[in-house]
Write a structure and sequence with these properties.
single chain; 272 residues; alpha/beta; Rossmann fold; 7-stranded parallel beta sheet; 9 helices
Length: 272
């Protein structure tokens, strides 16, 4: 059983690796024995985190900066990996944008669908969908040529159900902001893309699955955390470490007969 979950001698690429969950994905893969390629926009920060991760997990991760929205950058990432390795075994498409509004006072109006800026919409499409497409095309092609590999696309519960806008309402009834349309739309597209790619590359030995996490506690205000907990059957928001086991399952041979699926880990959020 231990061997089923082992990632020893595997090379794993994680995009958006410097984010809250990205760092946890890297840690989980390294702890399972993989050589982790830490990838995000800032190359120096990727290298710094890779050094920290290596000390913490006694592994040899590598930090490489890349922009997932540009083909040339993703191709350069691939070529850099092959400078030291002969195969790529795992790709975690984690890079994504979740809207943040610079002016809290204007967030409620700006985040309304009627007012939502087109540039915000386009930016989310570029990173959340096009970035997943390009990394899968460039790196997944390598896997297909090898005859094996696992691609894990990080989606969201909001790719399955509509946002509960009441979560973002203050106790006095005022709306702090609205969950904007781009994130749910792009995460729904990630799920559709996962099914497409899983069936397309099935005969090439490449498995493609999605992981849909629920909300993660990360310094939100107390009222939001309490409202989210009440809305969740398990009675709490996720901790950043709650997705490590699911990720290793999808990356490893433990899920060897699984492709085109969406593993939902949300404390029961979508169960009612």
């Amino acid at each position: 059983m231990t061997d089923l979950f082992s990632l020893k001698k595997k090379v794993a690429v994680v995009t958006g690796a410097l984010g809250l969950l990205g760092k946890q994905h890297c840690s989980a893969l390294a702890e399972a024995g993989a050589t982790v390629i830490v990838t995000d926009l800032n190359g120096e920060r990727c290298e710094a985190f890779a050094r920290e991760l290596g000390i913490a997990t006694a592994s040899k991760p590598v930090g490489i900066g890349a922009d997932v929205t540009h083909r040339a950058s993703v191709e350069a990432l691939r070529d850099r990996i092959f400078h030291d390795h002969t195969e790529i075994d795992i790709l975690v498409n984690n890079a994504a944008i979740n809207d943040a509004f610079e002016n809290p006072a204007a967030a409620a109006e700006q985040s309304k669908f009627e007012n939502y800026p087109l540039e915000f919409w386009q930016r989310s499409l570029d990173v959340n969908i096009t970035g997943t497409f390009l990394c899968s095309q460039v790196i997944g092609k390598v896997m297909a040529g090898q005859g094996r590999g696992s691609i894990i696309n990080i989606a969201s519960t909001y790719g399955l159900v509509g946002p509960d806008q009441s979560l973002y309402r203050q106790e006095d009834g005022k709306q702090s902001f609205y969950k904007s349309p781009s994130y749910p739309t792009t995460k729904g597209a990630v799920l559709a893309f996962t099914r497409f790619l899983a069936t397309y590359w099935a005969k090439s030995g490449v498995r493609v699955n999605a992981l849909s996490p629920g909300g993660v506690e990360n310094g939100q205000d107390k009222a939001f955390i309490e409202h989210y907990a009440t809305r969740t059957p398990l009675g709490r928001m996720a901790q950043p470490t709650d997705y490590k086991g699911a990720l290793i399952f999808l990356a490893s041979d433990a899920s060897g007969y699984m492709t085109g699926s969406n593993l939902v880990v949300d404390g029961g959020w979508t169960a009612w």
